[in-house]
Amino acid sequence: MANRRDSRIEPSFEGSPRAKSSDGFSVSEEDRVVPGSRKASKGKSAKAKSRSRGRSASRRGLVGIFGRLLYWCFVLCIWGGIAVAGIVVYYGAKMPAATTWSIPDRAPNIKIVSVDGGLIANRGMSGGEAVGLHEMSPYIPQAVVAIEDRRFYSHFGIDPIGLSRAMVTNLLGGHFSQGGSTLTQQLAKNLFLTPDRTLERKVQEVLLALWLEHKHSKDQILEMYLNRVYFGSGAYGVEAASRRYFGKSARDVSLSEAALLAGLLKAPSRLSPARDPKAAEERAQLVLAAMREEGKISDKEYKVALSAPATRSPSYWTGSENYVADTVMEELPDLIGDVRGDIIIDTTVDLTLQKLAEQSIRRLIDESGKKLNVTQGALVSIDDSGAVRAMVGGYDYSTSQFDRASEARRQPGSAFKPFVYMAALEAGRTPDSVRNDAPIKIGKWTPDNYGGKYYGKVTLATALAKSLNSVAAQLTMEVGPDAVVEAAHRMGIQSDLQANTSIALGTSEVTPLELTSAYVPFANGGYKPDIHFIRRITTADGKVLYNDSSGSAPRVLKADIVGMMNSMMTGTVEVGTAKKAAFNWPSAGKTGTSQNSRDAWFVGYTANLTTGVWFGNDDGSPMKKVTGGALPAQAWHEFMVAAHEGVPVRPLPGTWKSTPSDTIVPDEIPSADASQPPPVPQAPVGRSAPVAAQAPAPAKPARTAQPAETVDAGGFDMPGDGGATASIKHPVPPGDVGGRTRKRQTSILDILGGG
Question: Which of 41, 38, 14 has its CA nearest to residue 26?
Answer without folding.
Answer: 14
